[in-house]
Amino acid sequence: MSTHRAGGRPRRDRAAASPAPAPAAGSSPRGDSDAAPSPGAGAQDASPAHEQPAAEPAGGEASTRSGLGAVLQEEEFSVADAIGGRRGIVESVLPTLLFVVLFVATGAVGLAAGAAVAAVVVMLVVRLVQRQSPSTVIGGLIGVALGAVLAVRSGEGSDFYWPGIVTNAVSLAVLLLSLALRHPLVGVVVALLDPRVSDWREHQDGRRVYTRATLLFAGLYAAKLAVQLPLLLTGQVAALGTAKIAMGLPAFAVIAYLVWLMHRGLLARRGLR
Length: 273
Prior knowledge:
This protein is an all-alpha fold and 273 residues long. The chain contains 11 helices and no strands. The protein has helices spanning 14-17, 68-71, 79-83, 85-106, 109-129, 135-154, 162-180, 185-193, 204-233, 237-246, 249-269. α4 runs antiparallel to α10.
């Protein structure tokens, strides 16, 4: 895609490149306050606002961000920023990949579950040693540990995926509820990430854009449930693991790109770019 920016390219100074205009009268410089989609991207499925880690200082160096918060204010879309780069990929994929490979190879639920939990623990320790935010890894650890307990207790490898399925269902319900209440969740999250659109509810164009963006994320979670729930109920562990990985970061990156395009279009129509 022509707007992709290589992960190694230095990021520009947002404050210098695009100063935020003064908010409209009566509006707040920040929107009202999930997620997180952060869509982030942790080791387990997440809802739109937290599929992205927060800023993470590393040893005094400039902080890096991933997810929607890293790309919304940029003029070029970076897949690497959206998914958290190589570390984001490893933290998201490795626990599931280990579980699937070891379970298929050995049939030992305990071994596969233990390896998945151990991988997340190691990633958590690495973040702590490097003095980086452990928030997304902690979320992943909770999901992986719970799935491991369920799988070991039942002896069924497919039970490892129940926490992710439940998370998808809850995320979908929250997104649909926000639409029913005419407060689309993606609009609320975007207003927090980019104060230039904190008054989006006051404009028909803004309401339309973020309603469609919320529908995109709702469609993603509905698709995950439609594909993964039947696989879970029929005990297809390998197929379920493959679907979980394929519908994780790659699908989130596509949705994040579409939301970025819609957001940038709104900024251009309002003369805020």
